[in-house]
Amino acid sequence: xxxxxxxxxxxxxxxxxxxxxxxxxxxxxxxxxxxxxxxxxxxxxxxxxxxxxxxxxxxxxxxxxxxxxxxxxxxxxxxxxxxxxxxxxxxxxxxxxxxxxxxxxxxxxxxxxxxxxxxxxxxxxxxxxxxxxxxxxxxxxxxxxxxxxxxxxxxxxxxxxxxxx
Length: 165
What we know:
Distance between the termini: 29 Å
Strand order of the largest sheet: 1-2-10-6-7-4-3-11
InterPro entries: DUF3830
Oligomer: single chain
Helix content: 10-25%
Protein name: Str. FM013
Region (Disordered): 1-21
Pfam families: DUF3830
């Protein structure tokens, strides 16, 4: 999707038989780009928590320590989560929630190579969302955030999913 066409380029969600557990189709609008993501069934507690936050609006800023990633700092927020499906080396298109403890609570949005860390050292976080459409715009979003600063981000149920709830 071109930056002059915000929110365009994605087709309506199609049912996915491999993800028939009701954990699919989150629409993410970040800056001028739109992505579709699916929840990870291997992180059920993190997914359940995040669903309670939807629609979720924040600012997305570039990481300081981890590489090609963006984050949503959440300070001392304690969601009462433990680690599940956690990784310190996420791939582009993976979205993680770090539940806090060693460093501040945060959501990490990866657009390239990431070795998740803070000034306290290496960290691992719960991989709970994976972008499945719009991945061709991840690098452009990352560079926009890096060079032009914080961007608005919105996570919401896709229209096809809203009717289920």
